[in-house]
Every structure is written in C-alpha cells, then in structure tokens.
Amino acid sequence: MEEDEILENSRVKTAKDVENELINLSINRARELIQSKKPPVQLLLHFLKLATEKTMLEREKLRHENTLIAAKTKSIKDSSNMPELVNRAIAAMTEYEIPQDEYYDEEL
C-alpha cells in the first residue's frame, strides 16, 4: 500500500499522524492478542520488558539527559549575548562619575 493510499484511507494529513495511527492500531491488536487464550510469547515478553524497573530507569535517565541538553543549549544561547552585555556594562561604567567629596579634596 502506498503512502497516498494510507493517507486517503485513514484521513490523516501528516506522516506523523500516519505513524501514530499505526502505533495505535498495533497496540489495539496486541491488546486483543494478549486477551486471547494463547497470545504469542514474544508479545508477552515485549510488554513484560517494558514494565521492568531497568526499562523505567532507562526512560527516566533519557528524560533527565534531555533536560540537561535543553539547559546546555539555553546556556550556549545565553552566552552568545555575553559580549554585548559586557560592552553595555563598560559603557555604563564609563558614563558613571564618582561624586567629589569635599572631605577628600581637602586631604589631597
């Protein structure tokens, strides 16, 4: 079946929509098979593996790594503005005048 046929039959517009629909159909079929009297062993093992603590920890690790990558990306973007901020700070400091205190004038 060609992609155009899939798009017409399912009435979806993007490849991501097609992918999501196929995933949903697969999960529904897996549910039906598991509820049957003799589901395939490979299917049961697949879902049992998803439920293990190791798999859950791996998913959590991936979420944390994604958060870290996002933070690093933000930091890099923010640091690209640093030269402009430094120049503005220097300009502000050069415009600042130290008030002359009469007390200091007398000692000099």
Polypeptide structure, described:
The longest helix has 27 residues, at 53-79. The chain has 2 domains: 1-51, no CATH class; 53-96. It has 6 helices and no strands. With 108 residues, the chain is mostly helical.
Fraction in helix: over 70%
Described by strand count, sense and barrel closure, the largest sheet is: none
Percent of residues in beta strands?
under 5%
Q: What spatial form do the alpha-carbon principal axes imply?
A: elongated
Q: Count of DSSP helices?
A: 6
Number of domains: 2
Radius of gyration: 31 Å
Helix/strand order, N-terminal first = HHHHHH
List segments where confidence is low: pLDDT < 50 over at least 5 consecutive residues.
Answer: none
Q: Termini, distance in Å?
A: 93 Å
Summing up helix and strand content along with how strands pair, one would put the structural category as mainly alpha
Please, what is the average pLDDT?
A: 83
Task: Tally the beta strands.
Answer: 0
Describe how the helices and strands are arranged:
Layout: H1 3-10, H2 15-35, H3 41-50, H4 53-79, H5 82-95, H6 102-107
Provide a concise account of the structure shown.
The protein has 108 residues and is mainly α.
Write a concise keyword list for the protein shown above.
single chain, elongated, 0% strand, mainly alpha
